[in-house]
Write a structure and sequence with these properties.
- The chain is α/β, with parallel strands linked by helices.
- 41% of the residues lie in helices and 17% in strands.
- The strands form four sheets. A seven-stranded mixed β-sheet has the order 2-8-7-6-5-3-4, sandwiched between helices. Strands 11-12-15-14 form a four-stranded antiparallel β-sheet, with helices on one face.
- It is globular.
- The two termini are 29 Å apart.
- The structure holds pyridoxal-5'-phosphate (PLP).
C-alpha cells in the first residue's frame, strides 16, 4: 500500500525511518535475546530517553516520566493532587473532554469546584478573566495548549504568569502542540505537562511522557505506586523515588520507548523553530485554499493558529466526505462535540472535519485536497 497524503497528524502522524528502525531493531532483539535481556542490552539508550525529552521541553532529565499516552501522564499528575471540598480548579472552554471528566469526578467525589474562564474576542482563554477568577481556594489551573478540535493556541505563557502571581499549580496539556510548536517549560512556568508520542512528535502509538517540575515532585504522591516508583523498606514503610519516575510503572513497552526517543531526536535535529515555521505556512495555505470553496466554513479560533485546520459545511454529511477523501488516500478526522462540549456546543457545532498538516505535507497535496473537496461538493 502506498503512503497516504496524511492530513491527520493531530490523530497520528507517519513515523520517520529512524523511529521505525529503532522499534523494529528492538523487537528483533527481544525475539533473539528475550525481553528482559534485550532491555538490559538497551540500558544506556533507554536512559537517554529522559535526556532527549528534557532537551525538547527545556527541563532536567529527572523531571521526566515515561507513560503509555498523554491521558495517563495527565492523570498521574492530576490525581496526585490533594484536592478537598471547596478547592477550585480553573480551566478554559476548550478543555479536552477526558480532562474535564476527571474534574467532574473530583467535583462529585470531593466537592471540588470547577471554574471555566471565558474566552477573549479571539476565542482563546481570556487571561484578564483568568486573573479575576482567582480565588483564595484556587489550587490548580489546568488548560489544554492546543485543543483537539481546532487551530487555536491558548496563551500558555500568560497563563503561567497568572499561576505564578497567585502561587497556584499549573497543569498544561500539550498533546496537540508538542512537536509542532517550540515549548520551553521554564518560559511557560507550568508545574506539569503531558505529551503524547504519536501525534506531532511522529513517535509510536502507545507512548507519551509527563513533566513534573522538581519543586513539586516531593509534595506530589502518585495515585498508585509499585516497586518501580517506590521501595518497600523495613518496618512496613515505603520510600518514593525522588525524581519524576515515581509516576511510572515497572513494565513498559521498551521498543516503543526507544521509538519515542528516536522521534524526539529527529525533531530536535530538524529544529522546532523550523518545523513550526513550515507548519504555519502550510496551514495558512490550506486555510486559504479552503476559504475559496463555496459552502466551506473555516472554524478555527485563536489569534495565532497552528497546523490543525477545522471546517464544516452545512450541506454535506461529514462522514461521507471523510470516506471520499480516504478513498483518494487523504486522511482526516471528524471532531465530535463530545470531545470538547464546552467549546463546540457554545458555537452550535455538532461535528467538524479536522485536517492537520505537518512539515512533510506539501502545497501540491494541499491543492489536491482542496480539489477533492470541490469535486465531492459538486457530486452531492
Ligand atoms: C488535547 C488532547 N489531550 C489529550 C489527548 C489524549 O491523548 P492520548 O490519546 O495520547 O492519551 C488528546 C487526544 O487526541 C488530545 O487531543
Amino acid at each position: 500500500m502506498s503512503a497516504r497524503n496524511t492530513s491527520n497528524n493531530a490523530g497520528a502522524s507517519l513515523s520517520p525511518k529512524p523511529v521505525l528502525d529503532a522499534l523494529k531493531r528492538h523487537i528483533d532483539l527481544e525475539s533473539i535475546m528475550g525481553g528482559y535481556e534485550a532491555a538490559e542490552h538497551a540500558k544506556d539508550a533507554l536512559a537517554g530517553f529522559y535526556d532527549v525529552a528534557a532537551q525538547l521541553i527545556g527541563c532536567a532529565a529527572s523531571e521526566i516520566a515515561f507513560s503509555e499516552n498523554a491521558t495517563r501522564a495527565w492523570d498521574m499528575a492530576f490525581y496526585s493532587l490533594q484536592l478537598n471540598e471547596g478547592d477550585r480548579i480553573v480551566t478554559s472552554k476548550s478543555e479536552y473532554a477526558s480532562n474535564y471528566l476527571a474534574f467532574l469526578q473530583r467535583a462529585k467525589q470531593r466537592g471540588v469546584v470547577i471554574d471555566v474562564v471565558p474566552d477573549d474576542a479571539y476565542g482563546q482563554m481570556d487571561t484578564d478573566a483568568l486573573r479575576k477568577s482567582m480565588h483564595p481556594r484556587t489550587k490548580l489551573i489546568a488548560i489544554t495548549h492546543v485543543p483537539t478540535q481546532g487551530g487555536l493556541i491558548n496563551p500558555a505563557v500568560e497563563v503561567g504568569k497568572v499561576a505564578k502571581e497567585h502561587e497556584v499549580l499549573y497543569l498544561l496539556d500539550t498533546t496537540q502542540s508538542l512537536g509542532q510548536i517550540p515549548i520551553d517549560v521554564r518560559t511557560i512556568g507550568c508545574d506539569f505537562l503531558c505529551a503524547t508520542g504519536r501525534k506531532y512528535l511522529r513517535g509510536p502509538r502507545g507512548t507519551g511522557f509527563l513533566y513534573v517540575n522538581e519543586k513539586v515532585i516531593d509534595p506530589c504522591a502518585p495515585p498508585f505506586i509499585d516497586l518501580h516508583s517506590a521501595t518497600w523498606q523495613a518496618d512496613n514503610k515505603y520510600l518514593l523515588k525522588d525524581n519524576a519516575t515515581r509516576f511510572e510503572t515497572w513494565e513498559q513497552n521498551i521498543a516503543a520507548k526507544l521509538g519515542l526517543k528516536a522521534a524526539i531526536e529527529y525533531a530536535l535535529e530538524l529544529g522546532l523553530p523550523a518545523i513550526w515555521q513550515r507548519i504555519q505556512t502550510l496551514a495558512t495555505n490550506l486555510r486559504h485554499a479552503l476559504s475559496d470553496i463555496p459552502g466551506i466554513i473555516l472554524q478555527d479560533l485563536g489569534l495565532h493558529k497552528c497546523g490543525i485546520v477545522t471546517f464544516s459545511c452545512n450541506k454535506i454529511n461529514l462522514q461521507a466526505l471523510q470516506q471520499y477523501l480516504s478513498a483518494q488516500h487523504m486522511n482526516v478526522s471528524i471532531s465530535l462535540q463530545e470531545y470538547a462540549p464546552l467549546d463546540l456546543a457554545s458555537r452550535g457545532i455538532t461535528a467538524l472535519i479536522r485536517a492537520s498538516v505537518h512539515y512533510y505535507n506539501t502545497d501540491v497535496e494541499i491543492s489536491k485536497f482542496a480539489a477533492a473537496i470541490v469535486t465531492f461538493l459538486k457530486k452531492t
